[in-house]
Write a structure and sequence with these properties.
Elements (H helix, E strand, L loop, with lengths): L8 E5 L3 H10 L5 E6 L12 E4 L5 H8 L4 E4 L6 H9 L3 E2 L3 H8 L1 H10 L7 E4 L14 E5 L9 E4 L13 E5 L3 E11 L5 E3 L3 E6 L4 E7 L5 H18 L3 E10 L4 E7 L9 H4 L4 H9 L12 E8 L6 E2 L1 E3 L1 H4 L5 E5 L4 E2 L4 E9 L2 H14 L1 E3 L1
Helix pairs in contact: 1-8, 2-3, 3-4
């Protein structure tokens, strides 16, 4: 007889806030969780059954850690792929699969995958160095992205003119046409090993232009049904083409002409799905567990309008974190606070998020704006 879910050990590479929220769901299934992270004070440290401080990019460390788990998953893509491939050869279950992580680790390979699989995306070109930028025919301005290791807005820059090339990344990168978009949207899709697949309703995002991070997320979208259905179909097509097991966040642009272009994907729980904890029948974190343990996928429908705000460390503050205004915002109905267990704040560091649920969309947005003005992470 196959083991029950509660008899299996789940190994998580990365001990940040995504791992922490995944463990919070895993506790409901009596799962044993093992976490590997290089930070001795990582957010997962005190809630994992076993926490190991070590490199997630070192072959031996990842391999030896993975041997102790039955199923291995990630909360960040920058992990040692070779170790995961070896563990797969030895019969360990790795979800998302090592080949999927390898493809997504390199934004250039990711874009080529979109092109080969007829996934709509902005025109792009691969370059090896900043000298190559002088020989491209892309019109200014365009976007330059490092192929590897970029995250949360890092490794991305706008090249507005030939003079900006002096400060460009001198590393393998890709350049892509600057999309004149109306809105950035996202769809989270989950797929289990049986091939069952479900999408969460499309969400709309507002960005902090200075930090290049999602500041504000609204669910569900009010775009016409045809655009929402198109976005959800694109997400399902990508998950199917990847043959992924687990959750996949698909970030997209809606252009001013009503087209949809895929920006990037992430094979893990994602910032664009945090509102699902309170706003949907099943959360992205529980759905990821259901997918990787090959269980029936949960009901993704929205329960209510939900607006999610990232809590970022204030500019000019670095040190032990204090949450100024917390008591005031807790007096507002429908407010759910998630702090990530990070002791120290610094400018733009993700310290937590707040979700506001309200049956009235405009009221949910108004409350979110009030919370943005009231709650500050200072030192």
């Amino acid at each position: 007889m196959a083991k029950q879910i509660s008899e299996l050990k789940l190994g998580i590479l990365g001990g940040g806030q995504l791992g922490r929220m995944l463990i919070q769901e895993a506790i409901n299934y009596n799962l044993t969780t093992l976490v590997l992270d290089p930070d001795p004070d990582a957010p997962c440290k005190h809630i994992a059954n076993k926490f190991e401080c070590g490199s997630i990019t070192d072959f031996d460390t990842v391999y030896n850690f993975g041997k102790k788990a039955d199923i291995i998953t990630i909360e960040i893509e920058k992990v040692n792929i070779e170790a995961l491939e070896q563990l797969e050869k030895e019969g360990k279950l790795v979800f998302p699969q090592a080949r999927v992580i390898r493809l997504i680790q390199d934004k250039g390979v990711q874009k080529q995958f979109f092109k080969e699989n007829d996934i709509p995306t902005a025109p792009f070109q691969l370059v090896n160095s900043k000298e190559d930028l002088l020989a491209t025919n892309f019109t200014y301005p365009y976007i330059l992205k490092q192929r590897k290791d970029g995250y949360d807005g890092k490794g991305v820059m706008k090249i507005s003119n030939i003079g900006a090339i002096d400060n460009a990344f001198d590393a393998p990168s890709l350049i892509e046409e600057l999309v004149d978009f109306e809105k950035e949207i996202a769809v989270i899709v989950a797929r289990n090993s049986n091939g069952d697949i479900k999408t969460f309703p499309m969400v709309e995002m507002e960005f902090n232009s200075e930090a290049n991070l999602v500041e504000f997320l609204i669910s569900p979208s009010t775009y016409p049904d045809d655009i929402q259905e198109k976005a959800e179909k694109i997400a399902m097509n990508i998950a199917t083409a990847l043959n992924i097991t687990g959750i996949l966040a698909v970030e997209m642009f809606v252009t001013k002409d009503g087209d949809i272009l895929v920006n990037e994907v992430a094979p893990r729980p994602h910032n664009s799905g945090h509102q699902t904890i309170e706003g949907n029948y099943v959360s992205q974190f529980e759905q990821h567990l259901r997918a990787i343990f090959n269980l029936p996928l949960g009901d993704t429908r929205s329960l209510s309008n939900a607006v999610m705000i990232n809590l970022l460390g204030e500019k000019g503050h670095e040190g032990i974190a204090k949450y100024d205004g917390l008591e005031k915002i807790l007096a507002i109905d429908g407010v759910y606070v998630h702090l990530y267990g990070k002791k120290y704040t610094k400018p733009f560091r993700k310290m937590g998020h707040v979700t506001i649920v309200d049956q009235n969309r405009d009221q949910a947005i108004a409350k979110a704006k009030l919370i943005q003005e009231t709650l500050r992470v200072i030192s």
